[in-house]
Amino acid sequence: MRTAIAILNWNGEILLERYLPSVVLYSEGTDIYVIDNASTDTSVQFVRTNYPRIKIIQNSTNGGFAGGYNEGLKQIDADIFCLLNSDVEVTEGWLDPVLDLFERMPDVAIIQPKILDLMRKDHFEYAGAGGGFIDQLGYPFCRGRIFQSLEKDIGQYDDTCEIFWATGACMFIKSKVYWQLEGFDLDYFAHQEEVDLCWRAKNEGEKVYYVGNSKVYHLGGSTLSNMNPKKTYLNFRNSLFSITKNLPRRKALAIIFIRLLLDGVAALRFIAQFKYKHCFAILRAHLSFYRQFHKMYHRREKANFIIKYYLTKSIVWSHFVNQIDKFNVLIKD
């Protein structure tokens, strides 16, 4: 299977300078592309000068994560796309276990490796960790990461297993499946578009897997940190988008109602913490969701719906009430 590594870049010369060397060193024989999202710095020239074998695709506008990949991948001919963040350091042999699983299990469409924290290499990283899941209300979490609680890597997730969603920080996906799903939803712009993509893939009967004996290190927060109000806005809004699109009508409407109430609680919590910009971000997220509800609702017409999509009923209750901060404790609860 022909594999292409596609790195999305926007004004990321410093990141490319730091992390491209590992990708080039440990990805021999694999085509590497940098998809540039209309950067205004000298990152494109940096790649051309220092890595002439890397192919450059230049988008005319910055379409965010979703639009950037949808546009750039049109120009890449491969069986497997590896969507790789520019702030990821890969390791020796990282490709082999992933590509081997694609060969051994033809029904697997999407794979992610183990994602560790570049700054604390013995801990899992926020974006993806040991593989993603959601609860009944659509809140995403990971093996190794529940909300802001990150586990130390002691080999507890060195397995290979089916998961619900794979992180966009390092996602391998069959190109045929990517285009059958029409790529990422452009209305997300950034954040949780990979959850939606994997959910849609699951609804179509595809499998998403985690491969623990392939590992990469992710810096994280290089575009928007976890504490940025814009990220709060995108996460709250886009999660509501995914619920609307990917669940049967009655279930979707019931869960949306509950989520709106819980979002209100989250807004009050932000006020109590004097994080007024985050409270306002939730309000803006709801207003944007209301404006686009009709469009998102009718996208359900393309979908089949899996019945068992969640691993636990409420990750919010488990974490904030029962004080559970480790995945293995959660599934025993």
Automatic annotation (TrEMBL):
Protein name: Glycosyltransferase 2-like domain-containing protein
Family: Belongs to the glycosyltransferase 2 family.
Record key words, sorted: Glycosyltransferase, Transferase
Entry keyword Transferase: yes
GO molecular function, one term: glycosyltransferase activity
Residue ranges of domain Glycosyltransferase 2-like in the record: 7-113
Record-linked InterPro entries: Glyco_trans_2-like, Nucleotide-diphossugar_trans
Stretches of the chain forming a coiled coil according to its record: none
CDD domains with a match to the protein in the record: GT_2_like_c (cd04186)
